[in-house]
Amino acid sequence: MVTAERAMGPGHGRHQGVTVCRKLSRYAPIFLLLALSCLVFLLRNMHTLENLSCHTASTFYLLQNSIHSAFSADGPPPPYHNHTFCNHLGLEPSPEEALEERYLLDSIAWPEPPPHSAPTPLRQTSDPVHSLFAILPNNGRREWHVGEQLEALVQMHDFQGRPKRYGGDFLVARLHSPECGAGAAGQVVDHRNGFYSALFPLLWEGSARVEITLVHPSEAVAVLRRLREERPDRVYFKSLFRSGFLSETTVCNVCLPPKQQPLCNYTDLHTGEPWYCLKPKMLGCDTRINHAKGGYQKHLITNKEALLFQSNVNIKVIIHASGPDRINVLPKKTDKAEIESSSTKPESVKFVPSGYYYHGSWRPLSGIALRQFNDSSAIAQCLRGKVLHMYGDSTVRQWFEYLNAFVPELNEFNLHSPKNVGPFMAVDSKHNILLKYRCHGPPIRFSTVSANELRYVANELDGLTGGPDTVVVLSIWAHFSTFPVDIYIRRLRHIRRALVRLLDRAPGTLVVIRSANFQVLDQEVSLYNSDWFSLQLDGVLRAMFKELDVLLVDAWEMTLAHHLPHALHPPPAIVKNMIDLFLSYTCPEK
Fold it and tell me: For residue 339, what pLDDT is reported?
């Protein structure tokens, strides 16, 4: 067979190759120009990273963020060792601080279920449908009077109807009367054997109904405890770095794996509060321009553990009574003999709440008379000549928004702050009122905050002059639920020190602290913002500030005792009662 090359002659192939090369060399400048154009286009459009979710972060974060399910396949969750170095961040605590921290952690210690070699099957966990409670007789009689205490006994059962033999369930209780518009929080005592006592003070005449709710079974609480200690990264943050037309976005947090890539250290120089970001690949650490919530890590628990977090099954489900669930409360005893006979009966220690609702209005039991501020002029007169500084999360920003909307003379300045982020400021020049709000420093799960506006509350307090015309309101809890409690203790300790300095130099300064509150829960929210996390933080907050000359708005009891559904941002009816209490502290009746 004769090939085509041989048929055309021996020089034809070489001649054709030279022709092709000459044609390619003619277009070389065009190819070079196109390549340079693509490079310039790429560099000029790197700012689009700003709208991506941490595209310059590690592959680990990107893969996890792309998973939409919060649950993994059966088997143990992936190993994570962030807590091994997270605990050592920040300034080393003094011996006194370490002792206080140990005391605080012991004070919120939660009963643990007995150890098992394998996860407890759902059928052996606490089931609110099979569980029951009974109202116990009052000294052998089913008769109760105002001023006495009602006790209900709860027995938990599993899904097979068998009694539980250990404690640790997260139960809440309230006593309420729709007819009277009344409600009060109860106290739940864990006997650690499957039985719980719910104690209620009897504060009004008429009907009163007992309501007991399982928030989480003990087995779910064990999962939440593990996540809090081992996965402090399950809410992560990000920062944008920019210099000229170059920009990068990286992951930030209180704790970051040091071996993942170099870190930028943004530890506060005054308080020692740690904060880190992964170092950008091309830019320096001093080019950070903002802070924002990055997202929520998924793939946190197994499918079997996910069964412990089911709405309408074992998250915030009512436990029914085995008999009557309501009583009729008689007037307070006035006969001396009756009072003496009832006082001699043995009973459990009485629980005294911070207040209760009656006819829809909160009535504090701390000795202060609650004033009703139903019109804007009353609020304006109360706040005349005062400067109000509100620091914290969105639950205290809600107070700023309420006052700013309710008092028409308050005019908000346009500080060009991002919506729902702040800082915000409103002025009533007629009554000489200045109202300010600023979010607390990281971790803060807000949308984009300028890096220049990130301020730690302790530092802000140190900058206040204070005095009788200064009011400080603090609400710091919601954004710390995903971290080990010692991080929250450290933050409150710095704030407490700053408050001590403020009250020393300006004793007339009024300081009001808003506690944590209940919120709506489902299986996703529970892993990040469960009421159990809030309860633990709330216990620490109350213990750390109880010796200071500060006042408390008990949002925990005010949301538990009310008939309206739980919400992270309580509805207006509850906020109005909180504001009335706050203003009653500010302008007490003489």
Answer: 53
